[in-house]
């Protein structure tokens, strides 16, 4: 039996609760532990458990054909002169189906399915792969008429000597929550006769080559593998006898001890937010180790970018760690994770690799203001996923705080004003797009051209109000939009408070009591309300008791060792409220961890009367 100690308020002096195999012992003094102690416990746990290292391992193939498959003939057989090679695999389907795939290849290519030619292209061609929000876009389309059971797929590829790859994937679902799951076939050589399981474990393909490609006629020359696939046989290769083998096996660097929800040092918005929170924790506590954590996060990613680029482009590891930093056009992986870099630039005039930080942030400002997809009529951030021009409340936090923080390091007054104006306008224009005026809450998202109202997801409302407070903190009170933004914030808070449970929590879907109490949304609301009291936007007498009750509720989900429970994992958008109600919860998911840290920071300022002496 494991004993764990919660920082929660105890309403009965001696209370023993048993959940599964754990005994939960609440503090017996009837008082909440002070916020800084809670924050340090979380921060110390992050420091203990975050290595900021890559762990090398074999790049194992995905055995379900639901993502990118690459046969890199050039890396296996070399480049520099014309050649021909073959690759073979099997697709196992549960049904007879027409299975759609996208295809990319250089130069000439032929594909046979069950001995029937289903694709061919002759001539010179470059790979044309475009990295989109949540997918890779390919130019060629192909339908594979799969039979129920085992299907053989044979590829013939030729090269002029400059590049030599064949890439294929099913079309992306763009992250949509599907009513019916797609029946993806299994892929690999697992059930191919005379293939040992050790081979099937590391590769989905067998390859053979190079064959001669004299005068670029090799694509139309019938070599032996087109007639029959035979093992233990030598073929006449371009330079020497050749036989079947597997593509070059790669070693890739991945995260150490990855969690179901991710890992605390991936390049993404919630880990960037965690590093940002650790910077502020360092400032209010005076303890440098929390700032060191944030610096390690920033340096790990900036210094590791060449390695990440190598894994993606040279090793074809499209699911390898941190490739999002290379330019995935989504605010989750551009502006939001950059917040700790901006903060360091603002706070530290001199440090070793400041120029690298500044160069990266300059690139992000360019992306956020000139390149990020926006709605034409309102100029607010929008997405292509899951549908073209889906506006997510999430993107208020993913983009607007960066604009605000970047304004603090702007080189000119004009640039500062431009960034703040953009941020302020977006707050009000997001309100026009995704605000449900009947409920005075945000719907999670809005599909362009659709009247469907998505659920009032708690964390989405949190993202919206968080972004609003960031603008209010930095926007001059004389700004023409300040009063409107403040009124919107106050309306939102007044509505949110109506849905607070007696326990102090909010539900995962705010207005659905049949959804579970949830930490990340509760933490963001706690932060936003405490921030409002600290900055004089809210009446302290009205809201202080409510925010203290919320903070006590949060403490009841935090153990003495810094573990934080009951955080909803990352969530797509859906019209189905049950999708949100049934989302899984995890411990220490940084989607909620950094929200708890910021909630504690504001509560520390509130309870210690530091709101006027400490600004961040």
Task: Give the secondary structure arrangement, pairings included.
Blueprint: E1 2-6, E2 16-19, E3 22-26, H1 35-49, E4 55-58, E5 69-72, H2 73-77, E6 83-93, E7 97-105, E8 109-113, E9 116-121, E10 130-131, E11 136-137, E12 140-146, E13 149-159, E14 165-169, E15 186-188, H3 197-202, E16 206-211, H4 224-227, E17 235-236, E18 241-242, E19 251-254, H5 269-285, H6 288-313, H7 339-347, H8 354-371, E20 390-392, H9 394-407, H10 413-434, E21 435-436, E22 441-442, E23 445-447, H11 458-474, H12 482-498, E24 506-507, E25 517-518, H13 519-534, H14 540-555, E26 567-568, H15 577-581, E27 585-586, H16 590-607
Parallel strand pairs: 1-3
Antiparallel strand pairs: 2-3, 4-19, 5-14, 6-13, 6-15, 6-16, 7-12, 7-14, 8-9, 8-13, 10-11, 17-18, 20-23, 21-22, 24-25, 26-27
Summed up, what is this model?
With 616 residues, this protein is of the alpha+beta class.
Q: How many helical elements? A: 16
Mean pLDDT: 93
> Cα distance, first to last residue?
43 Å
Q: Structural class of the helix and strand makeup? A: alpha+beta
Describe this structure in words.
The protein has 616 residues and is of the alpha+beta class. It folds into 3 domains: 1-31, no CATH class; 32-56 and 254-607, Alpha/alpha barrel (Glycosyltransferase), CATH 1.50.10.10; 69-249, no CATH class. Strands 6, 8, 9, 13, 15 and 16 form a 6-stranded antiparallel β-sheet that branches. It has a 4-stranded antiparallel β-sheet with strand order 5-14-7-12. A 3-stranded mixed β-sheet has the order 1-3-2, with no helix packed on it. β10 and β11 (136-137) form a beta hairpin. α1 runs antiparallel to α16 and α11 runs parallel beside α13. The longest helix is centred in the middle third of the chain and has 26 residues, at 288-313.
